[in-house]
Design goal:
The structure holds two protein chains of two kinds.
Chain A: E1 8-14, E2 17-23, H1 29-36, E3 55-58, E4 61-64, E5 77-79, H2 88-99, H3 109-122, H4 128-135, H5 146-156
Parallel strand pairs in A: 1-5
Antiparallel strand pairs in A: 1-2, 3-4, 3-5
Helix pairs in contact in A: 2-3, 2-5, 3-5
Chain B: H1 19-22, E1 37-43, E2 49-55, H2 57-60, E3 65-70, E4 92-93, E5 99-105, H3 108-116, E6 119-124, H4 131-134, E7 163-171, H5 174-180, E8 183-191, E9 203-208, E10 214-218, H6 223-234, E11 241-244, H7 262-270, E12 276-279, H8 282-287, E13 294-303, E14 310-322, H9 327-338, E15 347-356, H10 370-388, H11 392-399, H12 421-431, E16 446-454, E17 467-473, E18 479-483, H13 492-504, E19 511-513, H14 534-561, E20 568-571, E21 574-577, E22 580-586, H15 587-590, E23 594-595, E24 601-602, E25 607-612, E26 635-644, E27 650-660, H16 666-685, E28 716-722, H17 745-757, H18 768-778, H19 780-792
Parallel strand pairs in B: 1-12, 10-11, 14-15, 18-19, 27-28
Antiparallel strand pairs in B: 1-5, 2-4, 2-6, 3-5, 7-15, 8-13, 9-10, 9-12, 13-14, 16-26, 17-18, 17-25, 20-21, 21-22, 23-24, 26-27
Classes of the chains: A alpha+beta, B alpha+beta.
């Protein structure tokens, strides 16, 4: 829907609630989430789609929100870690991430938490190779990944 | 070592900063400061140019622009060690990207738009990008007034040159050594500039409050360092500056000193105290940000055939600091006194130089010059061993320093309680199965080999830096711990909480640690969270504070229970009379002092305090004599690699790291090891800032500057912590481990490559392009033979 000032009205479901925002045609989803909706867990690491710290679940799939225009997101569903609060999955993720020391500085962590959630919901039988493949989309400069990969494996293990 | 019975120490205790998982954790870009303005910088397109005119009139017309500032508004240089940096260029821009103007506007968009409208007239000047060229007498000078710059007393700038600092170290006689040597190896090694690539781009915000207090929020490893250095640079008292603690999204050295904080501070001063924030994006982090320096090592080393002893080492070590030195002067100093690493050599001559070039400026990078020196020195060791016909592990064992007997080339005695250098080397050899040749792959274009290097870390810090801790009791018997450590990912806050709970024998949940709810006005001083020192140094202050608290508890309990204080012990949340466990007071009964049944009260709240200063270190004199080291964490690191001769790609099949130190928290220690190892391996194989011939960075982002992904981790990684000795003043014997695991990989991989295919690469990184290029240069027949084999099959 186009407005008179060149801004576009966009309706999207964010963390379970319908939200309406007015955005410029070139506004990135990451900016809408951070600046208009106050979802600061979505981190701005590079804005070129390399680092993955702005990953959100977009219609159920992990997507880098710096590569999505908010205008495209009309009618879509977005989940950030703020939306996982109180869920059984988040309790389990918190437990396995803390137990494995799967985070250090915390800047890439919300993205990896969402990845864990996505694995639990969508790929609960993912193999180690599939977990590694999925993890390649998010950069971490601190951990060396070993403890993150272990946490992701434990998040979906039924042991 | 005797059996240890700890409640928490050495255990894999889960870290408690789980607000990082939920998105609650706030970094600089996440905090809202009402009314904050945005700053955007305008950078020079030239590596060296005179600024003739800056026209800001068009930029100022952009709606929302509040001010456009230039170097004229900031007429002084900053710098703590050498005052040599114009954060906004004044008469001359000294590198591509050197900020020449700062636009301040209501929105980032307005600031960006206005920044494009700032018109600058430049007169390009001759420039120099290579440190060796910069040292020549006819090189363009970056700092013609170097002789007038204020600097710390133990630094030696050479006026009229591009040398910001020269360090000399002399021990024995090189001539004597040369007479004794049967084999002499003379080589030059080089490492490029690289970027710390913390994932959180740097940012800061500042405002001047109506009472004149300067308030700063910054992504910093050293809030107190920012305060000290800003006070020093601006000539204002420290107490007028308040720096807030924030979560720091990775620093690795780049966020340990004053960086650009002073721009929002001065902008706020000019704008009647309005808050101003400057948040760099990724590309700006590369252009404006601190880098790791480039290094050149020229080495001449001689050894005897009869016993395999190294008899002399002469080195010229060059630290290419970029357009400003400041801390680079100390880094150039450190490579100098590190000199010959963990080896005992009778005759040593080192000249180290910190050299200016028209490039971005540099600062500490995790492992503080050690990784870079080992890249050179440990290759030198393998070359010498081969010339002597000796096994490289045996050759190292014969030359290693002997704790208690050897001295550093600076004259400092190698302390026995630092640990066992031989022990780490031997253990790494066992773990990599040294002596057992790797099984070669079937593909004729692939080759495997192993190598082992020494990679100790001796943190470099000024001899007088201090830190303190406060523990205070709450009504419910719990304890709050207040220290100056910054949370940069390492998790020291967790380890410090474990120490308090351990000493008081109370549940860990009863220890609360101040995290980012602190600022420099309500926190005991700490120098910086760097140099692998937080657990070691702040840990000692914490233990002293807890001891102080315990003495107070015992004193108070003794008055109430009418016994001698020495007969009271503290356990299970109580002060208990030894041998008479029915005589006890719960900690909550004494936390706020004690109230007798008649209402009469004594003592008041119990608060313990502790401070620490280095005990073993001194400054170094003009010949490099003195005691630079508080401790050394010995480490040996080994690899088994597979090289693809056709593509030049090196895969790490196995990585082994052995460090001689016990740890506080097992999973946090492993996190430092895995993270350090992957960073070091990536530095070895991929990382390099590429400049064009005009000094412009060609890869200012993660598209072309590749940091490691999950798929890049070694196929197998083995980490082992030894505890041969407990450093007696360290908390539970634990030395620093934040950096040591970065150290040996570039050298180990280069040595393994040589052992695999006979190609020696003395320039980092060992990228596929460089490996192929060097194969063509050094071993063209390797490629030809493979092509023949493939054709013949």
């Amino acid at each position: 829907m186009s407005g008179t000032d060149g801004e576009i009205q966009v309706k999207l479901k964010v963390n379970g609630r319908m939200r309406e925002v007015r955005v410029k045609p070139n506004e990135r989803l990451i900016d809408t989430l951070r600046e208009k909706l106050g979802l600061k867990s979505v981190k701005m690491g590079c804005l070129t789609g390399e680092c993955g710290t702005c990953t959100v679940l977009y219609n159920g799939q992990p997507v880098k929100s710096c590569l999505v225009l908010t205008a495209e997101a009309d009618g879509k569903e977005v989940i950030t870690v703020e939306g996982l609060a109180g869920s059984d999955e988040m309790r389990r993720i918190t437990e396995v991430f803390a137990r494995n020391n799967a985070f250090q500085c915390g800047f890439c962590t919300p993205a990896f938490v969402l990845l864990a959630y996505w694995l639990m919901k969508v790929k609960p039988k993912a193999t180690d190779e599939e977990i590694l493949e999925a993890s390649n989309s998010i950069l971490c400069r601190c951990t060396g990944y070993t403890q993150i990969l272990q946490a992701l494996k434990e998040a979906i293990s039924r042991v | 070592m005797q059996e240890e019975k700890y409640l928490y120490i050495r255990k894999p205790i889960p870290r408690r900063d789980i607000d990082k998982l939920t998105g609650e954790a706030q970094f600089i870009a996440d905090i809202e400061i009402p009314g904050a303005l945005w700053m955007k910088l305008v950078g020079s397109p030239y590596p060296h140019a005179r600024i003739l005119e800056i026209d800001t009139s068009e930029a100022e017309k952009v709606p929302g622009v509040e001010a456009v500032l230039t170097g004229k508004d900031f007429p002084f240089k900053i710098g703590h060690h050498i005052r040599d940096r114009d954060v906004l260029a004044r008469d001359r821009a000294l590198y591509v990207g050197h900020p020449v103007a700062a636009v301040i506007a209501e929105t980032l968009e307005a600031a960006e738009k206005a920044a494009e409208l700032v018109r600058v007239k430049y007169e390009p000047l001759p420039y120099v990008l290579d440190p060796l060229e910069a040292m020549k007498p006819d090189a363009p000078l970056l700092h013609p007034n170097l002789g007038e710059y204020e600097h710390l007393p133990f630094l030696y700038p050479v006026p009229g040159t591009n040398i910001a600092h020269k360090f000399k170290l002399r021990k024995g006689s090189i001539k004597d050594g040369e007479r004794e040597a049967d084999v002499v190896v003379e080589e030059e090694y080089r490492l490029p500039m690289l970027h710390h690539s913390y994932l959180e781009p740097w940012g800061a915000a500042a405002r001047v409050r109506s009472d004149g207090t300067i308030e700063i929020w910054t992504s910093s490893q050293g809030p107190f360092a920012v305060r000290t250095q800003l006070a020093h640079s601006l000539h204002i008292p420290e107490s007028r500056i308040v720096v807030h603690y924030l979560y720091v999204g990775g620093g690795f050295g780049a966020k340990s000193d004053l960086f650009l904080e002073y721009l929002p501070v001065l902008a706020s001063m000019k704008l009647n105290g309005r808050p101003v924030k400057l948040i760099l994006n990724r590309e700006e982090s590369f252009y404006y940000g601190f880098h790791r320096a480039e290094y050149i090592f020229r080495m001449k080393t001689g050894a005897r055939k009869s016993d395999g002893k190294i008899v002399f080492h002469k080195g010229e070590y060059i630290y290419g600091t970029g357009h400003a030195a400041d801390l680079g002067s100390l880094l150039g100093n450190t490579i100098g006194w590190l000199a010959t690493g963990p080896y005992d050599i009778p005759n040593v001559w080192i000249d180290s130089y910190t050299v200016y070039t028209n490039k971005p400026t540099t600062t500490a990078f995790r492992n503080y010059t050690h990784t870079e020196l080992w890249f050179a020195f440990e290759q030198q060791m393998d070359i010498l061993a081969e010339r002597l016909g000796m096994d490289p592990v045996e050759f190292r064992l014969r030359n290693l320093i002997k704790p208690g007997a050897s001295t550093l080339p600076t004259g400092q005695q190698i302390s026995e309680d630092w640990g066992d250098p031989e022990g780490v080397l031997k253990r790494a050899a066992e773990l990599i199965e040294w002596g057992k040749e790797p099984e070669q792959p079937r593909e004729p274009w692939k080759r495997r080999a192993k190598a082992i290097v020494m990679a100790p870390k001796g943190p470099s810090m000024p001899p007088n830096i201090t830190t303190s801790a406060i523990v205070k009791m709450n009504e419910d018997g719990s304890v709050d711990l207040l220290t100056g450590v910054a949370e940069i990912g390492q998790g020291t806050l967790n380890s410090l909480a474990m120490m308090v709970a351990e000493e008081l024998q109370i549940p860990l949940e009863k220890v609360r640690v101040y995290g980012i709810d602190r600022d420099t006005s309500n926190t005991p001083y700490d120098w910086e969270t760097c140099a692998s020192r937080a657990t070691f140094a702040i840990g000692q202050a914490v233990l002293k504070a807890v001891d102080d608290l315990k003495q107070q508890i015992k004193q108070l309990a003794s008055q109430i229970l009418r016994v001698d204080p020495s007969s009271i012990e503290i356990r299970d949340g109580k002060a208990v009379v030894k041998g008479e466990p029915w005589k006890a007071l719960k900690l909550e009964e004494v936390a706020m002092g004690y109230t007798f049944p008649d209402g009469h009260a004594i003592h008041g709240q119990l608060i313990g305090r502790g401070s620490w200063v280095p005990r073993r270190t001194t400054g170094l004199d003009e010949e490099g004599r003195g005691h630079p080291l508080e401790f050394v964490t010995y480490s040996a690191q080994a690899v088994e690699i597979e090289v693809d001769i056709l593509s030049g790609r090196i895969d790490i099949l196995k990585a082994v790291a052995v460090a001689d130190t016990p740890f506080i928290n097992k999973i946090l220690a492993l996190g430092q090891a895995y993270g350090g190892a992957l960073m070091g391996i990536n530095v070895a194989l991929r990382e390099e800032i590429k400049f064009d011939e005009n000094g412009k960075i060609l890869n200012p982002g993660f598209t072309d500057y590749k940091i490691a992904r999950a798929g890049d981790i070694p196929k197998s990684i083995i980490v082992e912590f030894l505890s041969t000795k407990l450093l007696h003043d360290a908390p539970y014997g634990a030395k620093g481990i934040g950096e040591v695991f970065l150290g040996g990989w570039p050298a180990a991989i280069a040595n393994a490559l040589y052992r695999a295919i006979g190609v020696r690469i003395k320039r980092a990184p060992l990228s596929p392009e460089r490996v192929v290029e060097e194969i063509k240069k050094q071993k063209p027949d390797l490629l030809e033979n493979i092509v023949k084999k493939l054709g013949g099959e």
